[in-house]
Amino acid sequence: MALTWNRTVDWDADAWRNEAACRNAEPDLFFPIGSTGLAVDQIDAAKRVCDACEASSACLDFALATNQESGVWGGTSEDERRKLRKAWLAARRRNLAEQREREMQAESA
Ligand code: SF4
């Protein structure tokens, strides 16, 4: 059986990476090792860059959609994103179910 890829998210919608405030930042800043000690200052510094980033919302959407587990994305830490992803997945499932329902109603009308 062949594996298939169900790509339901447009990862590069609006080319958000072009607006990324971190394009010229030190990549290590956004990928601290751990979440305690010196990493706390690193995470805070990365989040300050994100605060001024015009692509923050799209970046976070991308990170949630593609389950980016490491690093700072869209102004969120790994722990914060883990919690957000549960809510994001639930909302996504709800939206897909509602969309399916509307399509079925349109077909039966
Ligand atoms: S929100 Fe942060 S991690 Fe995402 S593109 Fe902007 S600066 Fe980079």
Write the layout of secondary structure elements.
Blueprint: H1 38-51, H2 56-65, H3 78-108
This protein binds iron/sulfur cluster.
Question: What does the model show?
Answer:
This protein is mainly alpha-helical. It has one domain. It contains three helices and no strands. The site of iron/sulfur cluster has 14 residues, from helix 1 and helix 2.
Shape: elongated
* Distance between the ends: 37 Å
- Major sheet size, sense and barrel closure: none
Rg, nearest Å: 17 Å
* Structure classification: mainly alpha
Helix content: 40-55%
Give the total of beta strands. Answer: 0
Mean pLDDT: 89
- Percent of residues in β-strands: under 5%
Quick structural overview:
The protein is mainly alpha-helical and 109 residues long.
